[in-house]
Amino acid sequence: MAKDSYKIENEAFLVEIAKDPEVKALPKGIFYKVLATGDGKSAQTAAVVSVYYRGSLIDGKVFDDNTKQGYADAFRLRELITGWQIAIPKMHEGDKWEIYIPSELGYGKRGCPPDIPGNSTLIFEIELVRVN
């Protein structure tokens, strides 16, 4: 039963965040808030993107953070979780967004043990540094 209540709590978080007037919707239940605006190019599906990011759960627990390492990590966009594949192409180089990803577009029912339980809504602060 605890797993069911955790899933419900995470779904309710997205319903509440959607009420924030600064929060905008993307396809498939993803939401985002613009923290900074850039004017660089945007990414296509086959692009390699360099990003600074911090990932957390709805309780604020940070599960990943590369913002203090001094360089942005590069990823092939098509190899990332579905939520990133949908959100990042909407961004431009220099943009910094807080993105709210429903569990089914993140790590789903299985999660990513030990840090991300199943059915977790993911919150990412992402700065798109470069598109290659």
Which SSEs are present, and which pair or pack?
Elements lengths: L1 H16 L5 E3 L5 E6 L11 E9 L5 E4 L7 E4 L5 H6 L8 E6 L20 E10 L1
Antiparallel strand pairs: 1-2, 2-6, 3-4, 3-5, 3-7, 6-7
Plain-language structure description:
This protein is of the alpha+beta class. The chain has a single domain, classed as Chitinase A, domain 3 (Roll), CATH 3.10.50. Helices cover 17% and strands 32% of the residues. The chain is built from two helices and seven strands. The chain has helices at 2-17, 82-87, and strands spanning 23-25, 31-36, 48-56, 62-65, 73-76, 96-101, 122-131. Strands 1, 2, 3, 4, 5, 6 and 7 form a seven-stranded antiparallel sheet that branches. It is globular, with a radius of gyration of 14 Å. The protein starts with a helix and ends with a strand. The mean pLDDT is 97.
Quick recap:
With 132 residues, the chain is an alpha+beta fold. Helix content is 17%, strand content 32%.
Task: Please give the CATH class.
Answer: Alpha Beta
Q: Helical element count?
A: 2
- List SSEs in N-to-C order: HEEEEEHEE
Q: Which of globular, elongated, flat, extended, rod-shaped describes the shape?
A: globular
Helix/strand-derived class?
A: alpha+beta
How would you sum up the major sheet?
7 strands, antiparallel
CATH architecture descriptor: Roll
Mean pLDDT: 97
Query: What is the radius of gyration computed over CA atoms, rounded to a whole number of angstroms?
Result: 14 Å
Residue share in helix:
10-25%
* C-alpha termini separation: 45 Å
